[in-house]
Amino acid sequence: MRVVVLADTHLKQAWPNRHLPEAVTTALQTADAILHAGDITQQVHLDDLACSAPVYAVLGNNDHELVGTLPDELTVELGGVRIGMIHDSGPATGRGERLYARFRDADVVVFGHSHIPWNATGQDGQLLFNPGSPTERRRQPHGTFGILDVQGGAIRAARIQTV
After folding, report:
1. Assessment of whether the complete model's pTM goes beyond 0.85
2. What whole-number distance in Å separates Cα of residue 136 and Cα of residue 38?
3. Rounded distance between C-alpha atoms, residue 60 and residue 30, angstroms
4. pLDDT value at position 16?
5. Inter-residue contact 23 to 146 (CB < 8 Å)
6. Element (H, E) at 60
7. 3-state secondary structure at position 27
8. 36 φ, ψ (degrees, to nearest 5)
9. Which of 88, 89, 130, 141 could serve as 118's disulfide partner, Cβ 3.0–4.6 Å?
10. Alpha-carbon distance 53 to 45, whole Å?
11. Which of 6, 3, 2, 1 is nearest to 163 (CA)?
């Protein structure tokens, strides 16, 4: 199972020149599922993603139009892997312990907010994964998104891709 992981896309119909980069749209063509860790901003963009694969998303701090539609946090099981999702994981210091306390049963915790890609092992072997942002790289050298390859109830690969 191939899972495309996005966050902080900040797509808005009012910004017609902002769109997902070609690397992302190409990856979406082979996705079995899509995770969005907040700040997509509008339902129409979630609907567009859902044309490629089932979408699981959480509310970001810029998702004002989606309040009441998306949860603040979510846990899903994909291919036998439990994935916790939240937009803002808080500061890097103590992140592993904080996310483990919140998503104790999750194998992976996907988060966003910082626009900083993060692919590291947290407490008790839990994978902490922030795909960064494909559209607003901020202080990062490149826009990024993530790919999780799930097989046999385990994460076989977790990659940050540049755009």
Report:
1. yes
2. 13
3. 26
4. 67
5. no
6. none
7. helix
8. -125, 115
9. 130
10. 13
11. 6
